[in-house]
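hey
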């Protein structure tokens, strides 16, 4: 069913991002919504990236919707913020594209995996 092993976490690491990804991935795998652990992890990470992108889009809409204040420093800071948010969204889009490529590869049956999940 899986071509990977979920590592055990030390005490205190249960709340780490890796532990959160592994727990969510195992839920996908056990429920049959992912063909293997690698694909399940990719799905979890992609869902997180998409959520972060939506958050960034909401912040961008908020900053763009602000009226000019008349204070040159604040208006410049807002313009710089828009530029930085746009760059962040582009970077997230690159990560999502790479994640989709990885997911398509991870979902392919490997030498120790059957065509359909068991």
């Amino acid at each position: 069913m899986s071509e990977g092993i979920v590592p055990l976490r030390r005490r205190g690491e249960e709340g780490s991002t890796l532990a959160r990804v592994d727990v969510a991935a195992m839920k996908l795998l056990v429920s049959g919504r992912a063909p293997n652990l690698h694909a399940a992890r990719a799905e979890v990470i992609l869902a997180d990236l998409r959520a972060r992108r939506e958050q960034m889009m909401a912040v961008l809409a908020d900053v763009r919707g602000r009226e000019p204040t008349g204070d040159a420093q604040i208006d410049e800071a807002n313009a710089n913020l828009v530029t930085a948010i746009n760059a962040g969204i582009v970077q997230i889009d690159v990560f999502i594209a790479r994640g989709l490529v990885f997911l398509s590869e991870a979902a392919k049956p490997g030498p120790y995996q059957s065509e359909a999940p068991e």
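The mean pLDDT is 86. Residues 17-106 form one domain.
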